[in-house]
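Section handout 9: paired folding examples.
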Amino acid sequence: MESPNQTLLARFAALTSVFAIVMVSFVAAKGSSGDGNATSAASAAPVPVTLSEFAINPGGVSLPKGGSLSVTNGGSQVHNLAITGTDLKTTDMSGGGAESLDLSSLAPGPYELMCEIPGHKEAGMFTTLTVTEGDTGTNEVAAEDFPEVDHSQLHNVDLSTLEATDEHAKRINEAMKDSMDEGVQTFLDFAERYANDDVEKGNRELVPEIGADGTKHFYLTASIEDWQVNPGNIVKAWTYNGMVPGPLIKLQPNDKVAVHLRNELPIATDIHWHGIDVPWEMDGVAPITQDYIDPLEDFVYEFTAPSFPQLGMYHAHMHGQEAIVNGLFAIVQVGQIDLPRGRTIAGLDVPEDLVVDHEIPMVLNDAGVIGLSLNGKAFPETEPIVAKKGEWVLMHYYNEGLQGHPMHLHRQPHLVVAKDGYPLAEPYRVDTVWVSPGERYSVLIKAEEVGTWAFHCHIVSHAESAEGFIGMVSLMIVTED
């Protein structure tokens, strides 16, 4: 029998065209009589722009040099509008808010419009701005410029005449299907590469050096490095040992530990052991518990691991608002949490002799240069969860982002067994787990249903946009054998 992976690979093998989202709408300035400059830019009406969850409409804005935007928040959340690389931006506007944005200081050329609220650009709130030499601007989008279209107008489509007349809606639909197909095919290509360990990824276990007294010595370097979040998206990430998330540190209860940190960042740093019991002077909060670790300086964190299992994260506390969301986060694990062996919970039988076949850390992020991501990667470069029918997966969620995320796995039993590393007296079964910033949840997953199942954040704008699947999406592939 073909595995679901093989079936999907076969299904998309014939795809040869590459669908690209065209983000720039070039619109010629409309001239008037004479040399085309009889009407002054200053007298041109402001160009209307509407913000919503999570889009900027129209898609592709053009206005003459000296013009302005009339910005309205048509959504329910707080949004703003900024021009990337400049100081020009609106205030943070609540739903229904409106204000004018003067762009008279911009020279002719292309720019990017975006919402600067953390996670909103990654969810789709960005588009292009073209400042023209001419005296008027237009936001009309020609058919050949698709997919620069306004999805908010889909509610106006007359289904009775759709096939005959509404080319706009049909283009939206066909473009989305093409983009979805291409994205899934690219994901499956990466799945094969992950199987062959041919992808640059984080969470690789850090092997310690063992000292004469049995101390485990771990060596970390904090630095800014190129990191591919997904195809074509290489960012300057803040990393431990060049990876996002940083290397996984595994300890046993009562281990003597020495973590040697070299700071090759342009600013001071430290390491906080979030969720791990360490002495006050090792807690990693400069300048409260230690001195700053300045650029090109070293520091050694020395402690004895707790005598019981714990599940934590390590990350910078100094400049955390910059460093963490940009990639300076990782996992530290002490021992193995207790599992509810020999119990039946909400109809799910957990065997007494339970064997965990796959243990998977899953770090969530939603901001900084990494953006909406799972383990430092965004769809279609996210790593799949692959298991055989009947196998057990122990997955640990860690939220290093700025927002909560409801993580949803289709069809497979999802048993929450621990919170912040502490085993639950009463585990519970869910299909969606809400993970707030700083929280850790451990879940047991039994691979029961053969198939290829969606796994994603259920804030839908964190998983889909007009370009198809994005950000916090992966697949669980369950095979027969």
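Moving on to protein 2 of 2.
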Amino acid sequence: NIANKGFSERIVTAPVSPLGHDTHISTKNATSFALPTNMPIAPFRQQLPENLETPLHEMYHYAFITDAEEGLILVNVDTLQDGEPRNNFFERSLTWNEDGVLTGARHITLGGTNAYILTDSGLVILDLDTPLEPKVRATLRLNHPRASALQFRYLFVVDQDGFHVVDVTNPDSPQVVQEASLPLQDARNVYVARTFAYVAGGRDGLMIIDVERPEKPFLYERFTADGAISDLNDVKIASTNASLYAYLADGENGLKVVQLTDPERVPTYYGFSPDVKPKLIAEKHTHGPALAISKALDRDRAVDETGHQVSVLGRIGSRPFNLEEMHKLYLRENGEVFSFPKDW
């Protein structure tokens, strides 16, 4: 708080007393967590009729935690948004592992009110439309999956065999896309940004996969910075000004920053998804192995994957599409996906 004149001390551990703040949740074997959005939201804000706003879904009040023994844990985090610094205490709202379906849970990805949870044996899709009453929508066998990333109609998964594409257009019937798998020896995590999937490939470095045609992916580039990246656990993609960067948790090697685009090397850097040219530009030693990196701030996200409003659009009388309206853009009335040239 060196530049914060509202504090009398220049260096503080927290803006509140430890006596009024405990956001720790004790679990048996927590493995991952997710928030419905990482944008600032206002669950208590009065909604305005002229903005055609729809209510913030109930799931936006919770943080979602996976535990290898306990399954799914929900924690209400509204207390951090109410402006009162003396009541910041977390408690469990739900612990759920019906019939042991989530035993071995190791990773969660949220897509609106659908939760995509990876366990030792495969994928479990949960319906969280009523967050405190989860329902299993579907399960899918995979070989010790490790991480997943969701984009539009596809869930991209890395497991012991490599990289896979799962069609989740219908979350009640997920399908592994045949001939869309790529063998990878040590895939540990995956992040998808527009037409590229970035895989933390462990000892094989950063694997950049072209997913512009999701059902026909191919390896675009394997990047190790001449062997400097050799224990890659996690990767996150973010933009700063006009350039794209990959932030790497490179295990025993610490933190690394890779520049993917810049005006000098990538003339098309202003495009929707320009070709990337990775270049290692910075690294930082960490006192222990770098295992994970948090996701950067999502911007301009007004609605989630199941049509629930997250933020207000910038014009009076406007609102984002709901799920039924979004379906009209890519599904026929019978639920089949539009195809070319059949539907043109």
